[in-house]
Amino acid sequence: MRVFRLSPIDGNDPSWKYSVEKAHVWACALTPADARDLVAARTGFFKLAEPGAVSPWKIERATSCVEESSMTYPDPGEVIREDGSRVAD
Fold it and tell me: For the chain, what are the domain ranges?
């Protein structure tokens, strides 16, 4: 497993309308795509979004996704905030 930092790039993108989290988060996943999927699932988007909407965490123009090779946490499948608290779905 690898740790990825996902960061907002374009906070004005309309996709942010339904995301509960709007700041940097870290996720433990196998690939960047898996990290994006995990964060999208844990940030409330799918419970709040209109049908057909796409999470900003899955859109490369809206968020970056960079491997943090020096980090050894979070645990697989976890998403954490900058303050270390866990993001729950």
Answer: 2-81
